[in-house]
Sequence to fold (299 residues):
Amino acid sequence: MSDRSPAEVDYAVGALCAVVAVLLWRAAARGTVRTSVRHALLGLAITLDCLLVAVTRTPQGEVVNAFALLWVAVYAAHFFRRREACLHAGLISVGFGVGLLLNDAPTVPSAYVVVTLTIWVAVGVLTDVTTRLRSQAATDQLTGLQNRAGLRAAAEREHALAVRTGAPLAVCVIDLDGFKVVNDLHGHAAGDTLLVELATAWRTRLRRCDLLGRQGGDEFVLVLPATTAEQAVVALARLRVDNPIEWSAGVAEWGPGESYETCLARADRDLYAAKSRRPAEVPLVPEPRRQQARTSVRG
Fold:
């Protein structure tokens, strides 16, 4: 945009970014990109763009580089939590301001205000949207518990922590006895109400660190950190108090080097062994619950 523009710096920065992009792409294909690495690369992108702002010779150059900073903010808002995205937005605000002070182009203060406000608004709006989408993607809409995908992700994080610390980790599979009969006799709305009541009652009897999710239908999965298989049996006994329906459970202790699916399969085998040892009991849903169930959302 000007004969005095430092094109050599643009070329050098562009070449560096191309190399980093290729390395990042290859690392992502192997699944070896840590969150700390992504934060560092985003900080590098902000630093390089603010360097270009500092050496630009025209107001137009400032605007072009400001667009690049907006892209960085959008990336941060999409991939990181709100607090982390705000830290990057703060780094952009400081770096952009320093770049404007160091360059030789005429700078209008309002340009800094417009750019930084745009960055913060974009980060605020996008983090709200992505937070809601992540929550919906990981939450069972009927019970409010974690769904299959959300529970697996959370369970694998707990397993990684257990492997590092050497603490035990128990996985329990819970299946309701006679739930199909409840749906057949009283309707699916009554069955939905029953699932919600169970989820609410169980959450009040679990620790804050325990993970409870709905695997699908009338099957639930419970992940108990720092808990052996024997201790998990005791925890399950606490969940049986005042339940409106009987249920069976299988327990497996999740060891190092074992996948989530393998541990879940062992717990499933223990569940079916438990079911074979006891007859299913068919509960009757009281009349008030049937009335309430008519307005329940079907799962």
Notes: The beta strands are 169-176, 211-216, 219-225, 247-253. Residues 280-299 have pLDDT under 50 and may be disordered.
